[in-house]
Amino acid sequence: MDILSLKRALLNPEIYPDRPTAVGFRETHISLVFLTGNAAYKVKKPVDFGFLDFTSLEKRKYFCDQEVVLNRRLAPKIYLGVVAITDDRGRVALNGRGETVEYAVKMKQIPEELLMDKLLERGLVTREMIKDVAERLVLFYGAAETSESIGSFARPERVKQDTDENFEQTERYVGSTITREVYETIRERTNDFLMRQREIFERRISSGKIRDCHGDLRLEHIFWGEEIAIVDCIEFNQRFRYTDVAADIAFLLMDLDYHGRKDLADHLIDCYIKKSGDEDLFRVLHFYKCYRAYVRGKVESFRLDDPSMGEEDKEAGGERARSYFDLAYQYTKLF
Predict the structure, then answer these.
(1) Are residues 237 and 264 in the same domain?
(2) The pLDDT of residue 306
(3) Cβ(269)–Cβ(285) under 8 Å?
(4) Where among 92, 109, 126 does a domain terminate?
């Protein structure tokens, strides 16, 4: 079933067990999300961006299963399981009869007003909340899996593969969402840091700071409910999760900077270091903040090439991409 036909079928309220009066819809560059009020159903698009490959039904099923398992580490009450989308002679259903044409991750629908990006917009994020998040991350990273194999993902030459990929995938946006000067400066400073600072990367590895992390730690993924739940970790590529805890938390710090709250970013890292004792983290922090900002610029730039995106969404994505690339450029002055 093609993606547009699937979208039309899943917008039908009658196929859902809670029989909503209407079905809400959200779209990202890799997912379609259908909202019933009680539950959210996330379907993976059949796309291949190099760093992820969802082009076969078998792969999408595998990564749906992975998404549930991995996200239950930080949001056990949110991720409910994987459902099959079936087609019985044109009748589409969830876990129904007929051929399985797709899979979806079923989640408890989160009230969006309680996500931390929305709370921040309303001025409701406090220093105490930031402290609680920092302490939750200390516990998570302390319990997260580590091994010699996982540690190898943070070696400078391995990190360079990721940064090189970013530069290769964004060169076509030079003159559109990123200027040639910004592109060349970030690439030059990134390569220079990786070459000069091998010792600190190796020390981070030997001290057990490379873990199976979240990989996409941003404000919009932190839910402030009865307890802190952090959703939407990276399931589609281990190399984005197998990383220095500094690289993981740098994403959240960068996000706070992007939203104009450097004060909260500074408080977050102060609380984290006080609780974890990881003062060595400062040596690589700005480098990883630059990397994270650049990744967001890349992802937003991808919207320009998505045929399913409207022109208004593409224009907004382009503006966000330019802001992220500019932020990455500012971080290069700090390392």
Answers:
(1) yes
(2) 83
(3) yes
(4) 109
Q: What is the pLDDT of residue 307?
A: 83
Q: What is the pLDDT of residues 206-262, one digit of tens each?
A: 999 999 999 999 999 999 988 999 999 999 999 999 999 999 999 999 999 999 999
What is the layout of strands, in order, in the sheet containing 31-35?
24-27, 31-35, 39-44, 99-108, 79-88, 91-94
224, containing H or E segment: strand 222-224
| Domains of the chain: total | 2
Task: Look at residues 45, 77, 109 and tell me which one is the last residue of a structural domain.
Answer: 109
Closest CA to 148 of 208, 197, 236, 189: 208
Q: What is the pLDDT of residues 277-325, one digit of tens each?
A: 999 999 999 999 999 999 999 999 998 998 878 899 999 999 999 999 9
This prediction has a pTM of: 0.90
- Distance, CA of 335 to CA of 326 (rounded, Å): 16
- Whether residue 328 contacts residue 23, with contact meaning beta carbons closer than 8 Å, is answered with no
Contact 32, 42 (CB under 8 A): yes
The two structure tokens encoding residue 300: 């937003």
User: Which domain range does residue 10 map to?
Assistant: 3-109
Same domain, 329 and 187: yes
First to last CA, the chain: 49
105 with 138, same domain?
no
